[in-house]
Write a structure and sequence with these properties.
Radius of gyration: 15 Å
Number of helices: 6
Structural class: alpha/beta
Mean pLDDT: 83
Distance between the termini: 32 Å
Low-confidence stretches: 1-19
Shape: globular
Order of helices and strands: HEEHEHEEEEHHEHE
Number of strands: 9
Largest sheet: 7 strands, mixed
């Protein structure tokens, strides 16, 4: 099941307490918006921090909206992929979902919306935010020798 694979894509790094724990996003292709809203509401409520340490696509990027800015860090491997929301039709083809796209877009912080707008807005083409552009928006993760963040 897709959601099981997505759950496995996020790895919990346990610290001394909840405030020291971090969710590490490594290779998350996204999925249903509601699934990610629910997941990240739980992370937000737990007080956990989020390390984006790899690919985070589609609905995974809701993390930027759901988690406070000061609880997110990015590594040099972080790569976020944005596109318009879609639903499968009867034959499995992608049909644009304008309402969900607008909902998704409106969730993002201002600087992410501005970046998206500068590239033509959310549409069927995937756009990637990484490297210096991403590092200018979110703080870098500081790794200790055991690979934990913060």
């Amino acid at each position: 099941m897709k959601s099981l694979g997505l759950l496995l894509a996020t790895i919990l790094l346990a610290g001394a307490g909840t405030s020291d724990a971090a969710v590490r996003i490594v290779d998350d292709p996204g999925g249903w918006i509601e699934t990610y809203v629910d997941r990240y509401e739980g992370v937000r409520a737990s007080g956990e921090k989020v390390m984006i340490d790899g690919y985070c696509a589609s609905a995974c990027t809701i993390v930027l909206a759901a988690i406070p800015h000061d609880r997110i860090c990015v590594t040099p491997r972080a790569r976020l992929a944005f596109h318009a929301a879609w639903d499968p039709d009867y034959h499995g083809r992608r049909i644009a979902n304008y309402e969900a796209t607008q909902r998704l877009y409106s969730m993002y912080p201002f600087e992410v919306r501005w970046w998206i707008d500068q590239r033509g807005g959310l549409n069927s083409h995937v756009m990637f935010l990484s490297g210096r552009e991403l590092a200018a928006m979110y703080r870098p993760c500081h790794m200790d020798p055991q690979g934990s963040s913060y």
